Structures are given as C-alpha cells and as structure tokens.
Amino acid sequence: MQITDIRIRRVASEGKLKAYVTVTFDDCFVVHNVKVIEGKNGVFIAMPSRKTKTGEYKDVAHPIKSEFRNELQQSILDAYADLGPEDSAYSPGVVAHDPIDRDAGVSETE
Q1: Does residue 59 lie within any of the structural domains?
Q2: How does pLDDT run across 70-89, given as a tens digit for each residue?
C-alpha cells in the first residue's frame, strides 16, 4: 500500500493539537482526521478516533503492522515539518489530487 496524497490543515490554537491530516492510499482509500500532536518528546500522530459511551477513545482506523505505522508517521511528520509557519499544504513528492474541481462550470470569461 502506497501513500499517494497527504493534505495538512494547521490548527490555529495554542494547544497541543497542531494539525489535521488527510491521507490517501493507492489513490483509492482515504483516512481523514489523523492528528499531529505536540507531546513531551516532540510531535507524533494520532489516528482518527471516537469517544465511546464509557468515555474511552477508540481508533476508527489504524495500521496493524508497526512498520507501516512508522512509515505513515514519518511521512506525515516529514510533510508537516516542510510546511512554513502559516501554510497548509500537500506533502512534497506525493501526488496531490484536489477532489473538488474548482473550475467546473466556470467559463474563462467569468
């Protein structure tokens, strides 16, 4: 499985949450709401999760193999580190696909 797109949206706050990330795999499967979090030992990723009735958080999607989790985390953190202080952007070297065709239905004369 290849990571084919990484999109990062910075969070404008003073807290530990630094960004939300959307990751696309093999141009056919997407995972939204991966978080970049500032911890005591630096930044790390947290997979998307939901709160259960008991107040516990459970991952909605997560890697099964530690090798792939390490690869995913490194790819996301490399892309995050490459951003400028105000940027939200795509990972360099990863093919970016915009799911919204912003020019659809708009003529060049408008």
Answers
A1: yes
A2: 999 999 999 998 886 666 55
